[in-house]
Structures are given as structure tokens and as C-alpha cells.
Amino acid sequence: MKKAGKHQKRCIQKSTTSPQEERLEESGPQKQMEQNPVERATEYMMRGEYRLVQSYLENNRFYRSDWHALNLIWIDSQRQMRKLARMDYKKVEWHRFKKKNPPPLTISDGKDKYKYNMPLSAKKILEDFFSTTPNPSHEEKKLLAQNTCLTDEQIKNWFKNKRQRIKKNEKRNLLENRKSGIYSDETNQEAIR
């Protein structure tokens, strides 16, 4: 697993909730939180009690600061259970399985799902910005990178790929229209230029 760089750490800190919101999440009618949930879940994993790990993570509330470690334990317990059932998945199958079986809401907020290593909330921000400015300046890209917690390189590549996909779709539509005879030859010649 990669170490988080300065940029990612700053974004992680920025994306966490305020202490007041965290206190509200923690209080409530649900079960009391454990002192060391990561250690307890790890202990269950070491003993090979994978169902107990999953039950523990699904039925208790945890501090937001423990969510990342508990998510990793959740995924590892899923993988170990599949191995015991002799269902060792290949990479693509495992990715599909994880997508269909996300971690419980007790260890995630369920809001920011990822697609192609990018949060969907960041993708929405980029889509909205693209609708007004398909070619952002370098300063605008830096500002977008700060707002979306992505790197400048990711922003640059996203805009480049988006423009290429649109251009490719326009050419495909033009060829389909030419084959179906919707446009006259003069219109096709002008569109190609």
C-alpha cells in the first residue's frame, strides 16, 4: 500500500468531519464504542474467526479515525473467507466482488464511492467545470486539484481524456450519419474540416 503524500494527507484532514459532527455520530442509541477496535478485530483475524470479525464490524460503532484500518481488516476478512470456501478470485473478479459487497456503514460513510481511482464527488466537480470550461488554465487546474483532493497530473489527464472522448464520439456520430445518408455530401465535407 502506498504512503499518503503531503497533498493526500491535507485532503484527508480537510475531508474529515468537525469534532462536533463526530461527537454527534458517536452519541446515539447504538452500542457503546470499544476502546481498541482495531486491535480487537486484528485479534479475531489472527485466530481465524472471520465471521466474528464481520459481525463485530457490522454491529458496533467506531471512531472515524479508525475507519481506514477497519476497512482494510474488513477486506482481508472477506478475502480469507473466500479462500476457505476455495473461491480464490482473480483480480477482476475480486474487484467486482468488493464493489458488490462494500464495507458496512459502521466503518464508512457510504458517500464517496470511487470509480477509476477517483471519488465520484470529484468527478462531478470536474464534469460541472468542464461544461463551462473545457480547456482550463494552469491556475484553474491547481484550484480544482485543491478542491477535489486530486493531483495536478490527474486533473490534466482527466480534461485531456474527456476532450478526446468527446471528439471521438463526434467523429463516430458523423460517420454513422454519413452511412445512413442523413446529411448531404456538402454538409459532411464541412463537418470533416
TrEMBL record:
Cellular component GO terms held in the UniProt record: nucleus; transcription regulator complex
Segments of this protein annotated with the region Disordered: 1-37
Subcellular location: Nucleus
Domain Homeobox residues, every copy: 109-169
DNA-binding region: 111-170
Biased composition (Basic residues): 1-12
UniProt-listed SUPFAM superfamilies: Homeodomain-like (SSF46689)
Pfam families listed in its UniProt record: Homeodomain
Source taxon at top rank: Eukaryota
Gene3D superfamilies from the UniProt entry: Homeodomain-like
Keywords: DNA-binding, Homeobox, Nucleus
SMART domains to which the protein is assigned, alphabetical: HOX
Cited PROSITE patterns: HOMEOBOX_1 (PS00027), HOMEOBOX_2 (PS50071)
GO terms of molecular function: DNA-binding transcription factor activity, RNA polymerase II-specific; RNA polymerase II cis-regulatory region sequence-specific DNA binding
The name this protein goes by in its record: Homeobox protein SIX6-like
